Amino acid sequence: MLRHEFQPGRLVAGAALMAVGVLYAGDAGGAWETPWFAVLPMTAGGLCLAAVAGMLGRGIRRRGARRAAAAEARPRAPH
């Protein structure tokens, strides 16, 4: 039994923001230098990818629900 449905948009958004966090943590720890302006395109790109993944996931779920409803509405042939 599933507790909740899989939401790929949230997964992608979390991964993108975690990558930005790791990038800045490495800069703060002295492992490498990160320019201040690098975070803007990474964050915006990650959020755009998350939006696309969310829309695709929702479309797939809605299409599956429509197919299931259509299969239930179809009369069954007697044997």
From TrEMBL:
Transmembrane segments: 35-57
Entry keywords, A to Z: Membrane, Transmembrane, Transmembrane helix
Keyword Transmembrane set for record: yes
Keyword Transmembrane helix: yes
Descriptive protein name: DUF3188 domain-containing protein
Native source organism of the sequence: Streptomyces cinereospinus
